[in-house]
Amino acid sequence: MITRRNFVTRMAQGMAASLAWPALQSCKAPFHPVAHLSGPNFKLGHRLRAMNFKAPTAEEQTDVVIIGGGVAGLSAARYLKKSTSTFVLLELGEETGGNAMGGSNSISAYPWGAHYLPLPNDHDAELITFLREANAITGYENNLPVYNEYFLCFDPKERLFINQYWQDGLVPHEGVPEKDRGEIESFLALMHDFKTKKGSDGREAFTIPVEESSQDPELLKWDAITMEEFLRQHHFSSPYLLWYVAYCCADDFGSSLNDTSAWAGIHYFASRKGKSANAASDAVLTWPEGNFWLVKQLRQNLEPNIRTGALAYDVIENAGGVEILYFDDKSQTSRKIKARAVIMATPQFVSQRLLKADRGFDYKTFQYAPWMVANITTTAGLVERKGEPLSWDNVFYGSQSLGYVNALNQRVGMSSPEKVITYYQPLLGADPVTLRTRAYKTTAEEWTTAILNDLTKPHPEIEETIKDVNIWIWGHGMIKPVPNFIWGDHRSRAANPVDNRIFFAHSDLSGISIFEEAFYQGHKAARAVLNIV
Amino acid sequence: MLISVFVVATCGLIYELVAGTLASYLLGDSVTQFSTIIGTYLFAMGIGSYLSRFLKNNLLSWFITIELMVGMVGGFSAGVLFILFEQVIYFRVILYSLVILTGTLVGLELPLLMRILKDRIEFSDLVSRIFTFDYIGALFASLLFPLILIPYLGLLRTSFFFGFLNVSVAWVVAHRFQHDIKGYKKLKWSAVVCLALLGTGFALSEKLTALSETLTYPDKIVYAKSSPYQRIVLTRGTNDWRLFLNGNLQFSSLDEYRYHEALIHPGLGRLDHPENVLVLGGGDGMAVREILKYPSIKKITLVDLDNAVTDLFRSNASLRNLNQQSLLSPKIQVINQDAFVWIRDQQETFDFITVDFPDPSNYSLGKLYTTTFYRELYRILSPAGCLVIQSTSPFVARKSFWIVDATLKKSGFLTQAYHCYVPSFGEWGFVLGFKQKLDVPYHFPAGLKFISESTVQPLYSFPPDMTVTESAYNTLNNQVLVNTFEKEWADYTR
After folding, report:
1. Which EC class heads this enzyme's classification (chain B) (predicted)?
2. Which has the closest alpha carbon to B12: B128, B117, B102?
3. Is residue A488 located within the same domain as residue A465?
4. Which secondary structure element, helix H or strand E, spans residue B143, and what is its range?
5. Gap between the Cα atoms of B488 and B469, Å rounded
6. Per the domain annotation, does A335 fall within a domain?
7. How remote is the C-alpha of B465 from its chain's centroid?
8. Residue A430 located in a structural domain
9. Peptide bond between residue A118 and the one before it cis (omega within 30 degrees of 0)
10. Which of A412, A416, A418, A419 is the best residue to mutate to test the B interface, defined by the most B CB atoms within 10 Å of its own CB?
11. Is the peptide bond before B218 cis (omega within 30 degrees of 0)?
């Protein structure tokens, strides 16, 4: 048996390497963090501020350059691969994947970020095509997609630790007073109305991609107020309901009730209408490594086009098209690519550093929520409280965190005593810059202590079974849909191509950081590019 | 003081009941155990009463000391007996010694109390009150014990709890009469220590119970081992062997032939020259024993998760007699791997597949009863082949049974359900799955004790209390079977 104190010390040693990464960052975070957290890529990203690059020593030509190897960039690349155009994808990190990054150890693969995909809406044709190619959709029955049963989230799916008991599902009910349950029910009924509603323009009130939602002012007006205000206006006051809605905002946006646009808040409940021949409409697709599985499917056949450890540092327009200058970390040389178009699959705070053009909007309107994600490996099963058994998603009522996901849930074999759990915590309660700075200054011990404090309530003595804790700080984790952002001018202007040569593809242009939006943005930019090359 | 009579009487009877219950649990034959324990206990109380005359001075402090001793001995008796049962040969000696000790101490209590109170209360009044409280306490205890204590606290905690009460009486009395007692402080501190010990015992009771599994098994345990996957326990009774996995009976050697003949022959007996057979689960080799009765069989692949089970049934001589050395046959290949993991990579096809997993009592096991798993089976079953699934009891878990049938149908199989009676299990059910109709005559091997052409036909017919109820099917993303199964068995055993 180990004491808490020497446990923390041991963890701290174990994490030294991983924690070195955020600790090194005194100010702005780099771009997409990569699997090996220490050193070079941070340094590489940081060079963008110093801009001390030598003149390019090599030059080449291609049709399109994609900058950024997250889901948007890879989606654009996948689409371009189907054409005859030539292209190169530049990724700063050692691996592509962005927010959908994953890792693995001897027990299981696990996610570092996004970890599931709800069943896509049936009009999201390109996404459905992709899922068909990836064999996530295995066929059709009665015109409805049949999803691969190995990828549909296995039962038991969700449980909530509330009143010292693990209840089934995440909507609070165990020990919740009648009155509160009534309020929760009427809230969910209201959300259901929004789900089935159409706007005055005949479009669905809320859908994915966000762009295709109704423009009815009666609906868009909700973007002007916060979710907190929306609940107040509708006389919702049950603490259980408020917790649940706050949990949902934190889960999807990394934001709080008081800084989430009500339109975005409603969108969470009212936009997912996927249907399937073999699963309920609230089913999700998931994998041990989370959406990193989708990333691996996206990048199939793309290896020849992808360059990792490649930091684009300048994008110059000229008569024939664009020149992209990048620094290759392996050879330590600068290189030039002449292209007819470029797709900036980078978040706007990065694009800002690469482009000189005035894009007619204020970059400051793009705010990013910081996150902490921890992958925790245990040597034995978790000590359980009463109620439902270990599920895929395990949430604690009243906690600051979003609970944890069990990476072994999609394993078909008998459950192993060792576990890998992925613990998620959006950093809330102040402005993103303050939170980000604070996150980087937080030590390994402090993070571990906080995580264990949270985990001990549902799992007594968990520290005795923990093998290691690996922590990842996402400085710019998710775009925040604050009021007036999604349907304000800045976001729509940011999406406009520059001179029909520079195109933009990133989920921050949708205002919501989810796989579907990143995929949509990538696909849309690639289609636009193919019109000109 | 009279309240203490009531408490003391209640505690006294509780210890007696605890000892009786424990003895009948552990040793069986409850009538004998209860009679002898009660007799011994009452006799010991007589000894105690007799001995009380030898206690002369400081009656109060004697009373308190005895209360402390009763509390400790009575409180810990159940725990001690529990732990010692598996370790000690002369268990009865210890059991009856403890009963005599407790009885003697309890027997000392009332005479002492009467002597303490005799100067304070009129004698006729005293006798009347003391015995009134004594008998009320007895009634109280005898009602409390079966209705509240055993169901909610359990045996061990009950015993600790009443030890605690006994010691508390000592403490309260000591506190009340502190000026009349010599060595009050010493007694008070002893009481505190006793309370702490009993409290700890109470808190650890659950772990103690887990340590001792003797309560679960009616017969003598001859082999017990924890593999990474399960607890394997083999017991030997007067006329049979029983195998338990995680406390669930897998077979009794008396009637396992009924189960295994019914599992294998209705399916395999109608195949034309089956050669390649797959057995999933069934590491005891009994199913393989039945399969080997068909001379056309060339190869049997047995996939069982736990090598502790297959090794046991390959190496132990008595068990090898039971499965007729089936696991040593040159035709068999044993693979210790998770069946679901193994089957996903399987390309070979099989003429007959036996699926003999534990019942779907949790989500891990439930995965082996899903459309996804059955589709994998469909993929590796030869076109004219057939498979059989052990599908729990259609009597106890009627809906669960028909969910298995519906799940097989949903996965593409033609199905045929049947059931048979296995005395140690009760009414048990199986489902056959085919890719095409098999209307061929049976050709059973000679020497079967249960299945024959005339006895097999009735097995396919279900009486009204077991007929089909369900069309729901079990999938990985919606394990309806696990919830249904859990509910049905809980309702049945309640």
Report:
1. transferase
2. B102
3. no
4. helix B123-144
5. 13
6. yes
7. 28
8. yes
9. no
10. A412
11. no
- Searching chain A, which residue's CA lies closest to the CA of residue B477? A154
Same domain, A406 and A444: yes
Nearest C-alpha neighbor of A408 from the set B378, B338, B245, B280: B338
Helix (H), strand (E) at residue A217: helix A217-220
Q: Do residues A185 and A258 share a domain? A: yes
Residue A405 lies in a domain: yes
| Tokens at A500, concatenated | 């029909």
Going by C-beta distance under 8 Å and a sequence separation of 6 or more, which residues neighbour residue A424? Answer: A371, A372, A373, A401, A402, A403, A404, A405
Angle (CA) B322 B323 B325, round 5°: 115
Place of tokens 């001859």: B222
**In A, what residues contact B, Cβ < 8 A?**
149-150, 152-157, 278-280, 283, 389, 412-415, 417
Q: Which domains does chain B have, with CATH numbers?
A: 2-215 (1.20.1250), 255-493 (3.40.50.150)
The single-letter code of the amino acid at A312 is A
Residue list, annotated binding site of B for spermidine: 260, 284
SS3 B250: strand
Residue A86, CB half-sphere, CA atoms under 13 Å: how many? 9
Spell out which residues of chain B touch residue A281, defining contact as CB-CB under 8 Å.
none
Per-residue pLDDT of chain B (494 residues; tens, 9 = 90+): 778 888 888 888 888 888 888 777 666 666 787 888 889 999 999 999 998 888 888 888 888 888 888 888 888 888 888 777 666 667 788 888 888 998 998 888 888 888 888 877 888 888 888 888 888 888 888 888 888 887 777 778 888 888 888 888 888 888 888 777 777 888 888 888 888 888 888 888 777 766 665 555 767 777 888 787 888 888 888 888 999 888 788 899 999 999 999 999 999 999 999 999 999 999 999 999 999 999 999 999 999 999 999 999 999 888 999 999 999 999 999 999 999 999 999 999 999 999 999 999 989 899 999 999 999 999 999 999 999 999 999 999 999 999 999 999 999 999 999 999 999 999 999 999 999 988 778 999 999 999 999 999 999 999 999 999 877 999 999 999 999 999 998 888 76
Enumerate the residues of chain A whose CB falls inside 8 A of the CB of residue B281: none
- Kindly state whether residue A127 falls inside one of the protein's structural domains: no
Contact between residue A274 and residue A127 where contact means Cβ atoms under 8 Å apart: no
Q: What are phi and psi of A477, to 5 degrees?
A: -65, -55
Name which of A407, A417, A411, A428 is nearest A470 in CA terms: A407
Q: Are residues A84 and A225 in the same domain?
A: no
The question of ipTM being above 0.85 is answered as no
Interface test with A, best of B335, B403, B407, B476 (most A CBs within 10 A): B476
Chain B interface residues facing chain A, Cβ-Cβ under 8 Å? 228-229, 305, 338, 340-341, 344, 362-367, 370-373, 475-479, 482
Q: State how far Cα A482 lies from the chain centre.
A: 17
**Do A460 and A488 lie in a common domain?**
no
User: Which amino acid is residue B87, in one-letter code?
Assistant: Q
Answer yes or no: do A195 and A66 share one domain. Answer: no
Structure tokens at A371: 């996150």
CATH of the domain at A425: 3.90.660
Domain final residue pick, A479, A505, A523: A479
Pairwise CA distance, residues B379 & B394, whole Å: 27
Task: State both tokens at B424.
Answer: 């140690």
Asked if B367 and A412 come within 8 Å (Cβ–Cβ), the reply is yes
A475 and A376, same domain (yes or no): yes
Number of domains observed in the structure of chain A: 3
How distant is the Cα of A120 from the closest Cα of chain B, in angstroms?
17
Q: Which domain holds residue A440?
A: 4-30+368-479
